[in-house]
Design goal:
3-stranded antiparallel beta sheet, two-stranded antiparallel ribbon, about 5% strand
Length: about 375
Amino acid sequence: MILPEPDDDADVTIGPDDDGADEWLGGLRAAGFPIVDRHGLAPTRQPATAVTPSTVAVDDLVAAALAPSTLAAYRVDWQAYGTWCHTLHGIDPINSTGQHLAGWIAHLTSRHLAVSSIRRRIAAVTYAFGLTGRPSPAADPLVRTTLAGATRRLGTAQRRAIPLSLDDIRRLAAAVPTVVGRPYTHPMVRRDRALLLVGWAAALRRSELVGLDLDDLTFQGDPDHGTTGGLLIQITSSKTDQTRAGAHVAVPWSTHYNACPARALMLWTRERRTRNTRAVFVSIDRHGNHGHRLDPQAVNLIVKRHVEAALGVDPSDYTGHSLRAGFVTEARTRHTPDHLIARHTRHRDLRSLHTYDRPVDLFHQPALNRDWW
């Protein structure tokens, strides 16, 4: 996700008008949008309309309709659009038209934002208008045509994280004590080893990884006596499971004892269970003290740190997604059936796995087979 530039981060100055704006602003406030009065003096905390227990309950459910991360992104996008409308046109965004939104798309295109980021910003505007039933300016044919032009101009190719192979992830795990500069038993060493190994072996998204609680983990079997089993992870919610139906991911015991994700996490959780918080992965200070739950960006930083130090390469194109992408790439290279990979990664559409293909991967199973070519 590409965040707005600093000039797009200012508070939106929005005030009531004579066309039902009080109801509109009340709906935006209930959904968590940052609304300040026309003069920008202070946030208007309560809508002008009467508040009853029933409307509060409805507002709570409306706010819960979106994932917190989505709502937070929409909030930033709505701020950016409001600032743009005020700065260039002197109007409130709630009074904007398709002409204004098309102009904003042109502005974002000139800044070379990714098409996916522009589409999300348009979705934020549509959601904001929809809260009170007003037609969104995004429905204007001019907006659709302008977006089509932006798509052709910018292209839809996305910058993808470099996948970490199985050899890479084992090298990272082995080098953690050296990179951290602490003994093998230090909390930060145990946390980083578990995070890297489990993130890769379970093909978890960053949000899923940092969202794990101790109650989500079950260890089955005995790793030291050759029994089957391993680590069973319950994913209570994810990007593709907004209704919280839940899913499970199994990570068997590895024959590589020193790089076994289940063993690494078992060591780490034994230490975590003596603490008061439920989160599995937490911050750790230089004295080894446990802190708050990690956020998704922390996974990116941990991966980059260890990639740069242990692999000796530029970490710019490595992110937390390198773990998940690495698992998919490795599994497909080893001819694991796509349906088994999709069950593990929880992809609903097998075609989604092709997004992980890299140009170099084409040589693993080329149509021009060496047996006859």
